[in-house]
Amino acid sequence: MRQGSETREGQLSAIVQFESVGLRYGTGAEVLRDLDFSLSKGRFYFLTGASGAGKTSLLKLLYLAQRPTRGRIRLFDQDLSDAERDSLPHFRRRIGVVFQDFRLIRHLSAYDNVALPLRIAGRDEADINSAVCEMLDWVGLGDRAGARPATLSGGEQQRVAIARAVITQPDLLVADEPTGNVDAEMAKRLLHLFDALNGLGTTVVVATHDLGLIASNPGAEIMRLDSGALVDPTGLLKNPPRMDRREARL
Amino acid sequence: MILDRIWVSGPEARLLPAEGLHGPTVAVMAMMNFVMIIVAAAGLALANTAGVVVSGTESRYVVELPAASASDLPRAVVAARAVPGVRRVSAVPQSEMRKTLERWLGESANSPDLPIPAMATIEIAPGADPAAVSSAVHAQVPAARFSAQSAELKPLLRSLRALQWLALALVLLMVMATGAAMVLAARGALDTHRATVEIMHRIGATDRQVTRLFERKIATDAIAGALAATIAAAVVLIAVGGGVSAAAADLEWSTPFASPDLLILALVPVAAVIVAVAVAHATLLRALRANL
Questions:
Q1: What is the ipTM of this complex?
Q2: Is the pTM of this model over 0.80?
Q3: Closest chain A CA to residue B289
Q4: Which residues in chain A touch residue B205, judged by CB atoms under 8 angstroms apart?
Q5: DSSP letter, residue A42
Q6: How many whole angstroms separate alpha carbon A179 and alpha carbon A210?
Q7: Which of A27, B12, B118, B220 could potentially form a cystine with B70 if both were Cys, beta carbons 3.0 to 4.6 Å apart?
Q8: What residue segments make up the domains of chain B, in order of their start?
Q9: What does the pLDDT look like over A113-134, one tens digit per residue?
């Protein structure tokens, strides 16, 4: 992650750029403040922070579920801070999202849930079938393709959610606690999947409390949120973010 | 347009759970359409009745002579017949006049002391001048009163026209009520499937893709309701219309509905379905635009 003032090379390869971004819900206090950073194409990021620090809110800004209340957000070289609503689906199709609560469609089978992004993108059913079967096999659910979410365990639902997020090989993958409900072995496999996608050029952002997960990917950069701001008070983070612009000026 | 909104692929259709055709939308559409068709049919029947009355009276006139001049009736008849364009002049027999009066006066109507006016009906050809007939009759019998039959029926025709407008207003009100019902149905459907809609949006679905799913359900329900209403209304109209037709045949009237009327009645449910789908489409888009 590159903070605030940036090298020209870094700016050119940035897939996400936040400039003085703040977010508040309604008339409440800001849940995110003065976020100034950029994410480079093809890098792997972990987003950490205590519960309530603003991780999910930051992810919502990344996957275009919220607009910032101040500042500018550039995604895929486009300023989307106040982009036309109708233009957003095009960008959302380039982002894969693993929700903390999975958000599977309960009346659809695992197969149909995973196929959803491809159908929305208008792919042929023949292409969809081979891609979905391959993906379900990969996450170990090849034999549960017809099962509905209610009949799947928490870990299986999470794997379906991950398969749905990565099936389109998105440019940006955003995952909120993706290994929270799976065992260590499956967590390793999923991280391997994220790594493989990352190797294909997908920028990956994973919000997690799982230190083991972070440790298993030494090449990743780490972002830490504290009370809505990016910080590194201990100085122990890899590639720690610098203080925000205001503090840097001081 | 409607077919385009109903026809979605199997996998796309599965995105909303299949609930079958038993929702309230079907029942509401059926009731609304039934009332609309029946009211529209009543309006058309009134229009036809008014047309029959007008065509039956527009060329007919009446010559009325007071009892004191009743003996002058043959002269008035001869004078009227002599006017070009007069097709038929018929003197109403005294016996028929008394028979008519019997309804109100009973046996007294046959009393020789009762002064009975004399009357003749005149039918003229289209384009003929009724004023010429009136002048000819007055020249022979100055006491004669010459009047158009249609003038006497004007209040009735006014009432019939008012009822026609009322029927049209009722149909329009029902169309608006159908639209309002569709607004509620569309909002309800969105609320029920809010989680699905949100996931689809997050994954990159456009508003059009989302609305198509709901439109399909609403259009299917609306068509089912309209179809049921059309069948029920047809049964009612055939039953009622059959009796009217028999009476009309006896009275030498036309049947209550002509072919264009049947076409109009068939178009009522079609229009209702189009309105329902269009309103649902607008409602869904507006509701979706309220969120990012």
A1: 0.82
A2: no
A3: A85
A4: 89, 120
A5: T
A6: 8
A7: B118
A8: 2-55+155-289, 67-142
A9: 999 999 999 888 888 999 999 9
In which residue are the tokens 């973010």 written?
A241
Test mutation, A97, A120, A169, chain B, max B CBs within 10 A: A120
- Whether residues A65 and B202 touch (CB distance < 8 A) is answered with yes
Find out whether B225 and B35 touch, Cβ atoms under 8 Å. Answer: no
Contact between residue B284 and residue A58 where contact means Cβ atoms under 8 Å apart = no
No. of helices (H) and no. of strands (E), chain B: 11, 4
Q: Say how many Å lie between the first and final Cα of chain A, rounded.
A: 22
Burial level of B269, CB count in 10 A (0-12/13-18/19+)? buried
Crossing angle of helices B154-192 and B259-289, in 10° steps, is 30
Q: Cβ–Cβ of B203/A107 closer than 8 Å?
A: no
Q: What is the pLDDT of residues B67-101, one digit of tens each?
A: 888 888 999 999 999 999 899 999 998 888 888 88
What residues of A are in contact with residue B196 (Cβ under 8 Å)? 105
CB spacing of B202 vs A97 below 8 angstroms: yes
State whether residue A97 is helix, strand or coil: strand
Flag whether residue A248 sits within 8 Å of chain B, measured between CB atoms: no
Query: Inter-chain contact B203–A97, Cβ cutoff 8 Å?
Result: yes
Of B30, B25, B27, B43, residue with least CA distance to B237: B43
Q: What CA–CA distances, in Å, run from B108 to B103, B105, B219?
A: 10, 6, 69
User: Among residues 65-84 of chain A, which lie with CB inside 8 Å of chain B?
Assistant: 65-67
Name every chain B residue with its beta carbon within 8 A of the beta carbon of A97: 202-203
Q: Quick count: other Cβ atoms within 10 Å of Cβ B278? A: 16
Within 8 A of A92 by CB-CB distance, chain B residues are: 201-204
What is the distance between the alpha carbons of residues B162 and B165, in angstroms, rounded to a whole number? 5
Q: Provide the shortest C-alpha distance from residue A133 to chain B (in Å).
A: 16
Answer whether A115 touches B (CB < 8 Å): yes
Cβ contact A116–B207 (<8 Å) = no
Q: Is there a contact between A20 and A194 (Cβ–Cβ < 8 Å)?
A: no
- Which value, in Å, is the radius of gyration of the alpha carbons in chain A? 18
Count how many residues are written for chain A.
250
**Residue (of A225, A223, A163) closest to A194 by Cα position:** A163
